[in-house]
Design brief:
Layout: H1 3-13, E1 16-23, E2 26-33, E3 36-43, E4 45-49, E5 52-53, E6 59-60, E7 63-67, E8 79-81, H2 86-94, E9 99-100
Antiparallel strand pairs: 1-2, 1-8, 2-3, 3-9, 4-7, 5-6
Helix pairs in contact: 1-2
Length: 102
């Protein structure tokens, strides 16, 4: 399914997305569409490497973690309208992370 087909179905059917689990900085939701049940994730943490010259002149590459700027002030509930998660569903489809599980 492409992103437009999924968005149309979500608005038409008013289906809910259900929280599945959280692991390694990602929230996982499932959504039931006419073609099956799909799972997708939302990244909650941004990780970036910062190159820093240590006192010995050797590059240290620590990782800096911060809350994902993509989350904004969105409230993530156990069950919510899937159309409210369209931004992340489209991202998952575009990155091949909208996975049919049933």
């Amino acid at each position: 399914m492409n992103a437009n087909e999924v968005k149309k179905e979500l608005y038409k059917s008013k289906v809910n997305a259900k929280f599945s689990h959280y692991i390694a900085g990602n929230l996982y939701y499932t959504v039931e569409l006419e073609t099956g049940t799909y799972q997708f994730s939302l990244e909650t943490v941004d990780v970036r490497e910062v190159v820093d010259k240590g006192w010995d002149g050797i590059d240290d590459i620590p990782k800096k973690y911060s809350l994902s700027s993509d989350l904004g002030t969105t409230s993530f509930e156990n069950e919510m309208k899937a159309s409210d998660l369209n931004r992340w569903i489209v991202k998952a489809i575009e990155s091949d992370n909208f996975i049919k599980i049933k």
